[in-house]
Amino acid sequence: MRLNRLYEGILRETSDFEGKDLLIVDIQPEYKSGFDYWLEDFVEFINENHNKFNTITFYYNGADTVGEMDDNDYKMWWEENGLDEDIIYHSKFYDKGYAFFRYCMDSGIEDENISNLVKYMMINDINDSRELDIDFWKGFMVEYGVGGEETRELLEFSDDCINIPDLMDDLKYYNNILVCGGDQNECLREVNIALDALDKPYQTLNKFVY
Fold this sequence. Notes:
Elements (H helix, E strand, L loop, with lengths): L1 H10 L9 E5 L13 H11 L5 E6 L10 H10 L4 H6 L1 E4 L6 H5 L4 H13 L10 H11 L4 H7 L11 H5 L5 E5 L5 H11 L4 E8 L1
Parallel strand pairs: 1-2, 1-4, 2-3, 4-5
Helix pairs in contact: 6-10
């Protein structure tokens, strides 16, 4: 009954989904323990409401990154879990990469400071934080003030790094964004930071976040 009430509550909100770009992050078998209790409801939600969305994109960690599935295996997994074949055919599946901002995230840097750094790196056409020089950091501090000092202290002389993923080029095409999936402290958080760096407003479908 609890899951049925959850789904009924979602149906009452469907008018909020009209014309949105739905980004589904890391809902895949390797992480099923985090979302197993609502996967069936999520599939039913997509099957019933897919026409309300402008686009549906499945971001995942695939065989080219840290996952176990290629594109075809991942699509088959969704079909086996009840997602309509026509929805699968018309959706986008994108192996997004992994852990591009994690060094800063795991070191306790605030998300806003990470997104500001990513934005400033993109403005200066720099993809790897190990390439940042004194002039970059001076400009960054002028632009973002004391909020960037902790980030600079972490990265300026570090052997570890953050990098600008190809994912950024894909995200820039979306607007009116709705995100879901997880993990909310790992890959989903990275996607949110990337959206902030691109100045892309988004909403979160909290009922389907793990």
